[in-house]
Amino acid sequence: MKINVNGIELFYHKSGHGDPIILLHGNGQDHRIFKKIIKRLSDKYTVYALDSRGHGKSSKVKHLEYKDKMEDVAEFIRTLKIERPILYGFSDGGIIGLLLAIKYSYILKKLIISGANTQPEEIKKYAVNLIKAGYFLTKSSKFKLMLTQPNITALELNTIITPTLVLAGHRDVVKEENTRFIAANIPGSELRIIKNENHSSYVLDNEKLYEIIKTFIEVD
Questions:
Q1: pLDDT at residue number 204
Q2: In a domain? residue 133
Q3: What span, in angstroms and rounded, lies between the C-alpha atoms of 115 and 193?
Q4: Domain total of the chain
């Protein structure tokens, strides 16, 4: 399905019944990375898996900004009148989730992020070099986005009132100290560094991710 938000078409996959949960993918991906977990979550929840602008079946754009992606999700929630959804965001999706919770205090019921960073320099050097090489070869706005954004401060994280779970693999491309920085600055947040996992391994292994999400969202 598609919906018009902020002058673009946003594609989303909807399934299931129950309380709403939104799934946001990472840079260069689309909603299909959640194929298995959508099926599991749909047993108890209404699942909205989005393609962010410039990705998948959503509108192509020349320039990407995290704040624009965040506003797309906010407008998506308002337009469909989704009442306080849970949001899970992976990588770029996690950054979008943080920005959403910072700007719109009561829009989310719970927030789960994984593999998110607050500054470009919080990505490990080898990964930054790969991103730079990708941008040099393609001039893609997706690579440029990761090299120049986000810029999230401790003060901004301090304003988040949404119950939040912060995840990362212990071999993540995001520096562990930055993951811990995020959790330490979101009041009352939970932190989980997952052993023997990299940036995306536990996300692509949807069964493992499902159990983590399920445990967090079912606790009142």
A1: 87
A2: no
A3: 10
A4: 1
